[in-house]
Design goal:
Strand content: under 5%
Oligomer: single chain
Order of helices and strands: HHHHHHHHHHHHH
Number of helices: 13
Largest sheet: none
Helix content: over 70%
């Protein structure tokens, strides 16, 4: 498969899995959002290591460690990416538990536009005609939401602006997606241990024994989804990655309404319909490009 085809497939896979995680977090009581975040970090760490082995990337992990020794500036960059990642992972499981799912969804609607802007300003990336039209439709929906609500919540803001600098740093660092994620998990692990030791309910696993298999499952799907998203970020232009990222908030919207049970006011449909049109245009455009690529290969 062509590199951009692989990138599109990985991005869609990541969006599908990420959309499941907020609903999944609702079944992890009596843990609150912070404890789910801490447990997610600890259970994701072995899952990412197993994926490293299965994918044959151990040599790349060794190379990344050697680069950290040779280039100390990368250690500072890794600390920053770990912090940015930690904030996003915390919000992602805290929001549904605290009835902030729609704010989270709006943040992920805004985040792709942030990626498109970063790709255009910092990497001189250009969008095809249908992609530009899709961005315009998405912008109409978002502007309507801003007009109706009158501003952005802190959850929405952090989701919208957190990932672009993360992806830029990861691209500059040049680490393999699995290796970089594993190193970030290692840096976040002490924070997770501290939160669990000092603040976790002592009888959580006796009250809810299903946590023994639900938490490892959360770690596994988190690792797979994030590794796929990072792989897509290395294979695709940031502009295209940003457009494809609209698939995730559309799915999160359905999770918010039909799984979490949040209510959409009648006026808010004018926010979501233009964005859904944008997604349809993106899917059509991507499918057309991939079809042309396959014809050239054949």
């Amino acid at each position: 498969m062509h590199l951009s085809g692989r990138g599109v497939a990985m991005s869609v896979f990541a969006s599908l899995i990420f959309a499941v995680i907020p609903g999944y977090a609702l079944y992890l009581g009596p843990l609150d959002g912070v404890q789910v975040f801490a447990q997610r970090i600890l259970w994701s760490l072995p899952a990412v290591f197993v994926l490293l082995i299965v994918a044959g990337r151990i040599s790349m992990l060794k190379e990344a460690l050697l680069r950290l020794v040779r280039e100390p500036i990368l250690i500072l960059a890794l600390l920053l990416t770990a912090a940015l990642l930690g904030v996003q992972w915390l919000i992602f499981v805290w929001a549904p538990i605290n009835e902030q799912m729609l704010d989270l969804t709006m943040g992920y609607f805004l985040m792709p536009l942030s990626l498109v802007l970063v790709g255009r300003v910092f990497y001189s990336e250009y969008l095809r005609r249908l992609q530009r039209i899709a961005v315009c439709f998405a912008a109409v929906g978002i502007i309507h939401e801003l007009w109706v609500v009158g501003g952005l919540s802190w959850v929405t803001f952090l989701c919208a602006v957190g990932y672009p600098p993360y992806f830029m740093l990861r691209r500059w660092m040049g680490f393999d997606s699995f290796s970089g994620l594993f190193l970030e998990m290692l840096l976040l692990a002490p924070v997770a241990i501290y939160l669990i030791v000092n603040y976790a309910p002592a009888d959580a696993f006796s009250i809810a024994p299903q946590l023994w298999y639900l938490l490892p499952g959360l770690g596994l799907i988190s690792a797979m989804a994030f590794a796929a998203m990072l792989g897509a970020s290395h294979l695709l232009p940031l502009g295209l990655l940003g457009i494809l990222s609209y698939i995730e908030p559309v799915l999160l919207f359905f999770v918010s309404v039909f799984w979490v049970g949040e209510i959409i006011e009648s006026g808010e449909w004018l926010t979501y319909i233009p964005i859904w049109i944008a997604v349809v245009l993106v899917v059509f455009d991507s499918a057309r490009v991939l079809l042309k690529q396959s014809r050239r290969l054949n």
